[in-house]
Amino acid sequence: MVLDYKNATAHLASYSKKDGLDVQTLIDSANFGGLTYNDFLVLPGLINFPASEVKLESKLTKKITMKSPFLSSPMDTVTEENMAIHMALLGGIGIIHHNCSADEQAEMVRKVKKFENGFINDPIVISPKITVRDIRRLKETIGFSSFPVTENGKPGAKLLGIITSRDVQFLDDDTIKAEEIMTKELVTAQKGITLTEGNNILRTSKKGKLPIVDAQGNLVSLISLTDLQKNQDYPDASKSFDSKQLLCGAAVGTIPADRERLDKLVEAGLDVVVLDSSNGSSVFQLDMLKWIKEKHPHLQVIAGNVVTRDQAALLIEAGADGLRIGMGSGSICITQEVMACGRPQGTAVYNVCEFAHQFGVPCIADGGIGNIGHITKALALGADCVMMGGLLAGTSETPGDYFYRDGKRLKTYRGMGSIDAMQSTDTNANASTSRYFSEADKVLVAQGVSGSVVDKGSITKFIPYLFNGLQHSLQDIGVTSVTDLREKVYGGDVRFEFRTASAQLEGGVHGLHSYEKKLHN
Ligand code: IMP
């Protein structure tokens, strides 16, 4: 008998066969192997809304929600202040690494907290005694064409004038001093003005730079016309609850010296601390968590890393405001190989998130995120946010210089447990060794490698690519937000399918002689 086509959807509702698997069955079926992101796919749903309407707002910790579910890893080739500033501007958060002295790390936190979009808070400044030869040299190395002149040649001191390239362009005598040729009649603005007000002054004064000074005439910051022209608005920026300052995260270890380090970070304005350990279920981390909760009760604490419910339970009970999940899944990681310890990331993310959510503790899937699809899968398995190292490495906001090899523009990307990173530490900077409980070891055992990645351009383009891609991905699944995804996964409406080895080949580009994989414009 042929059924009436007009009843197809009604018939489906009472149909005994369903496509794909619910999430619990997916995880249970993989119990003899563990699940990675590449092992499965999410089945498509109904699209009845535009991708641009998909909300990616997600919880980072019990008290912090972000517009984008993205974090940059606390690694010395990924997150210093420049990355942290841009991650926050783009709606996520950067976690500043601790493979440096406590003072250096606190200074980075301070720079993120002091950052105001459009204001140059750390301008390159010259002394009145500097010669034309030196100014030309500075211009060649730095590429700027004008410099404020202050009494002692440092920001924060009394502003005396400005030197522009025109002032030095036609001078034959290289020994003339800045004070003899600088422009002294300056248009300045008082500390506290808004970017829009500064913008208007620049426009009407027809100057290229607007120095901002305090009541005593000391240089505080600078607004540049060229910056203003390329300045984007960042409506989704992650900001602290009480101030308009960007949100900033930083990692610390769990040895006694890290308490002093954390005090300095908190003084610099830190919002979130990540307790950085390859295995978070240690008495050291539990003690540290308890100490932080007593000493800095307002600080949000992300504990980890964990991959099992047992590990998670200890940290949840000790007061963790968020959990970081992953052991051995990072792209530079050899932990699973060397330590025989860890867990496939899909299984780890599902199990920990399913448990932690019952206590209202948000979870971050950390490591192994290689593309937008992996982000979607991490969220589908319960993660609130994803942390990325390798995917962001090679962008211009990461620390380190580009270099050329085999005709490619590259940057270094290394594991914090690589010999390179562990040996780069001085006595005050113990991030790498303490992360792996190796600070007392005479022979270092590497848990990571050091390598290189290709230039990915700026994250001001790359993060929007991830964001838009994720919106389209959720649209394909038929969910309108990260919360909607979670509810429909746990409710059994979002369905999953395993991928065999040949399914994975089928899902990749195949049958071409050659091709170029260009991911965004
Ligand atoms: P990726 O995004 O796959 O490159 O992984 C980054 C994550 O790997 C970081 O956020 C850390 O959790 C982890 N990680 C960093 N350094 C090491 C290491 O040397 N060995 C193992 N895991 C590491």
UniProtKB/TrEMBL annotation:
Q: How is its activity regulated?
A: Mycophenolic acid (MPA) is a non-competitive inhibitor that prevents formation of the closed enzyme conformation by binding to the same site as the amobile flap. In contrast, mizoribine monophosphate (MZP) is a competitive inhibitor that induces the closed conformation. MPA is a potent inhibitor of mammalian IMPDHs but a poor inhibitor of the bacterial enzymes. MZP is a more potent inhibitor of bacterial IMPDH.
CDD domains (alphabetical): CBS_pair_IMPDH, IMPDH
Catalytic residues (positions):
333 (thioimidate intermediate), 435 (proton acceptor)
Q: Does the keyword Lipid metabolism apply?
A: no
In which residues is K(+) bound? 328, 330, 333, 502
Quote the record's binding site residues for NAD(+): 276-278, 326-328
Q: Which domain of life is it from?
A: Eukaryota
Q: Where is the CBS domain?
A: 119-179, 182-238
**Under which pathway is this protein filed?**
Purine metabolism; XMP biosynthesis via de novo pathway; XMP from IMP: step 1/1
List positions binding IMP.
331, 366-368, 389-390, 413-417, 447
Q: Quaternary state and partners of this protein?
A: Homotetramer. Seems to be able to form heterotetramers composed from more than 1 of the 3 IMPDH gene products (IMD2-4).
Put simply, this protein is called Inosine-5'-monophosphate dehydrogenase
Origin species: Candidozyma pseudohaemuli
